[in-house]
Design a protein that fits this description.
By secondary structure, this protein is α/β, with parallel strands linked by helices. It folds into 2 domains: about 220 residues, Alpha/Beta hydrolase fold, catalytic domain (Rossmann fold); about 50 residues, no CATH class. About 30% of the residues lie in helices and about 15% in strands. It has an 8-stranded mixed beta sheet, with helices on both faces.
């Protein structure tokens, strides 16, 4: 692991070696010794740590002063691309998350799982239940709507290559404005900066386009198996669901069924936004911050004693993960 210098709320990059040797990028904010629960942010399928550019510093620099880490999944952002695209699956990515948590000495945290990151959060609740002190499921639940899945399948790895970020913003506006009718020109430009990087004078996607191969075998006519058992593994911890009013991935009916199974679950519906709502704006950030503080109280959390193996990215997860 390439260590970052412990500091304040300014972001720092860390690289952790996965079990198969791939280098994984983590963006870290805040003090590692912060006396409150850390927060772990997991992006969506073709997204990066950039999706948390507003939320992470808000939690790290504000009154709560938290340690926050955001993870670029393999093949996304600054993480290495996998030579074998078949490894772009939630089981492998779950293993990567566990390796990173062990390497950074994080035994328990609040997880913010955006779309695919939320699926990994639910799987983690089954595999290592005591690692999770609370969960924010960002426009994702146990049932994925086929219509939304078809839309994602239609564009991942298939976007045109823009000549400029301005052109990229127009490409994104054309694809997503129906779900996000009130985003401004600046919002679309910022989205383009998250979707493409400059490389050798050209704009390229911020993810391995071979991610599209993971979707080829999905039959839109056959819904994916629901993950109610995995969601049930979160029953003992606080859960917040953030749903975009226009989401075609997480339906209002699914949220109602989730609430029936987890009556204490908090729900925020973001108006005029779809999949996934932008994690920005004072009201939404304040609500997420209040939820994370509630997780502190529910966990009666205190800083765990560091384990010597925590700095070894190949070490087994802490024993308390069971």
């Amino acid at each position: 692991m390439q260590n970052a210098i412990q500091g304040d709320g300014n972001p720092r990059s860390i690289f952790v070696t996965a079990q198969d040797g791939l280098r994984l990028h983590v963006r870290e904010y805040g003090l590692r010794t912060a006396p409150v629960l850390p927060v772990v942010c997991l992006p969506g399928l073709a997204r990066t740590v950039g999706d948390f550019d507003a939320l992470a510093p808000y939690l790290a620099n504000g009154r709560q002063g938290r340690r926050v880490i955001a993870i670029d999944s393999r093949g996304r952002g600054q993480s290495d691309y996998d030579r074998n695209p078949e490894n772009y699956n939630v089981a492998t990515e779950l293993g990567d998350v566990v390796t990173i948590l062990a390497a950074l000495g994080i035994a328990q945290a609040v997880f913010v799982g955006s779309s695919r990151g939320g699926l990994i959060t639910m799987l983690l609740a089954v595999a290592h239940p005591t690692a999770i002190a609370g969960a924010v499921l960002h426009d994702i639940g146990p049932v994925i709507e086929p219509k939304g899945l078809a839309r994602i399948k239609s564009y991942v790895g298939k976007l045109p290559q823009p000549k400029s970020f301005a052109e990229g913003s127009e490409i994104l506006r054309g694809l997503f404005s129906a779900q996000f009718p009130k985003l401004t020109a600046d919002d679309w430009f910022a989205a383009a900066k998250r979707a493409w990087n400059t490389q050798d004078g050209a704009l390229v996607p911020t993810y391995d386009v071979r991610l599209a191969q993971t979707l080829t075998e999905i039959d839109i006519e056959r819904p994916l198996p629901p993950m109610w058992a995995e969601f049930g593994a979160l029953a003992r911890v606080p859960v917040l669901v953030i749903r975009g009013e226009n989401s075609d991935i997480l339906s209002a009916e699914t949220v109602t069924s989730m609430k029936e199974r987890h009556p204490a679950m908090d729900v925020i519906e973001v108006p005029d936004q779809g999949h996934v709502p932008v994690l920005a704006g004072a009201d939404l950030l304040n609500s997420i911050g209040a939820f994370v503080a509630k997780c502190d109280a529910a966990a009666n959390w205190s800083e765990p004693e560091p384990k010597g193996a925590a700095s070894d990215p190949q070490a087994a997860p802490p024993e308390r993960w069971g």
